[in-house]
Fold this sequence. Notes:
25% helix; two-stranded antiparallel ribbon; single chain
Amino acid sequence: MGTSRTTYLAFGIQIPDAEPEELQEKLHGSGLGYLHAGDHIKSMTFLVTECHTVDLGTFRIIRPEVHPAEQVSEWIRMLRDGATRLGITNMRPPGWFVVPDLRAISVTDVPAEAAR
Length: 116
């Protein structure tokens, strides 16, 4: 057993935890994704439009001009639509989240190429 140590930088909203199958079914065709991350005690779920991984010991530069105001407005509209699809009536404010993922993983969770 090992530990996954990745950090995510994502634009979205935090949502109540839900099963991946439910999220995939309800968000199908919406252009949205979801992120489950956290530690071995508590996992968090986010509805996201944009998500970048930042591996341990590295950094990532996201320039604001890459995402113009019109794009961010569209993302917010998409997030509202996604929240409605999921039955969330009181959506939290969207924004950029830095989310560390420190969950324990077993060898069977590692892709075959990485396990060799």
